[in-house]
Amino acid sequence: DVYKRQDILSMKRFSSTTLKTAFVKSIPIFCSYVFVSMAYGMMMASAGFPWYDSLLVSLTVYTGAFQFVLITFLSSGASLITIALTALLMNSRQSFYSITFLKEFKQMGRRKLYMIHTMTDETYAVNCTLDLPKKEKEDTMFLVALFSRCYWIVGSVLGDILGQIIPFDLTGLDFCMTALFLIIFIDQWEKAEKHTLALTGLGIGVICLLIFGENRFMLPALLIVSALLLLFQRKENLA
Hints:
By secondary structure, the protein is mainly α. The chain is built from 13 helices and no strands.
């Protein structure tokens, strides 16, 4: 139909009310993304990568936690297999997010691929709060995803540019990635009734660090943890 044939990035189809709703819903994401993405851009600049590399990575990868890890991989010359497997394992949770909105995405025509690519923890959380008519909900979800991605891209490029032109010490900025994982870990710890899996993952990470060293422990740790999670999930389904 005509609705599906329109350009997926055209703003003419969206009402002012929908644009306003989507923007208001995306404000918390803006507050989070801009500063984190600027830190990412500054780290890219510190590692010697120009602003267009930050832009290219943000356009194609678009997953905050892994983009920070990717800086280390690119700087150390890690193999493509290691990078690909790490990206898959670190972001596999987002596959489960999309399952929640399979019906909505399927009805969004050409936009569904963009919705899958831009699904993040934050956009998923916002989508779950939307109680709108079908057409308005689909448009709002799309705009929230579009706005959020723009926030991240602008922040990463701006951070890279500032990191190259402003002479200040970036020592310690790489702790931003560690802090991000710690916040996620603490948040999940507080929400979970049982902490067996969290402690198991923590223990495996420490053991792999001792065995493989700090430059090689991540991939085996992720593989082992993912295998155990699948095993636990299978046991729960059989129970």
